[in-house]
Automatic annotation (TrEMBL):
Protein's organism: Halotalea alkalilenta
Gene: bamE
Any Pfam family hit: BamE
Primary site of residence: membrane
Chain spans, region Disordered: 103-143
Species lineage: Bacteria, Pseudomonadati, Pseudomonadota, Gammaproteobacteria, Oceanospirillales
Name assigned to this protein: Outer membrane protein assembly factor BamE
Subunit structure: Part of the Bam complex.
Length: 143
């Protein structure tokens, strides 16, 4: 009886300790804001209209209440290992056209990927086959 109580107590203690954080918990990356890629920033040029910018970059994250001619795109990524990546693009308009582009953060590089897809040369793809419709063997009500 004494041994069975000790074994049960030991099993309970081990199961409680296992859930207390000795083993790391899966953490995922937390992106926030507008996704900003180097290709997007390179496409935006001075003289573009607001509609053209919206097509490339999307809607701005923040509307400046003090200056309607400034659009801010902000992106922040908190990685699972605790690193933080900040990117910011501010576009200034004059006569509804981009007059100045201000960038900050590391726009030119992407944060390290956790899992990488295989290169296109190594990727295995199967060609899609056309789907043929199935013919019904039961006559319709109109026949």
């Amino acid at each position: 009886m004494q041994n069975s109580i000790r074994i049960v107590t030991l099993c309970c203690v081990i199961s409680l300790i296992g859930g207390c954080g000795f083993f790391s918990v899966y953490k995922r990356d937390q992106p926030q804001g507008n996704l900003i890629t180097p290709e997007m920033v390179q496409q935006v040029q001075q003289g573009m209209t607001r509609e053209q910018v919206t097509y490339i970059m999307g809607a701005p994250l923040m509307d400046n209440p003090f200056d309607a001619n400034q659009w801010d795109y902000v992106y922040q990524l908190h990685t699972a290992d605790g690193q933080v990546y900040d990117k910011r693009v501010s576009l200034y308009f004059q006569d509804d056209q981009v007059s100045y582009i201000d960038t900050s953060g590391d726009i030119g590089t992407a944060p390290p990927a956790r899992e990488q897809a295989p290169p296109a040369s190594e990727a295995t793809t199967t060609p899609l086959q056309p789907v043929t419709p199935i013919q019904s063997s039961t006559p319709s009500a109109g026949d």
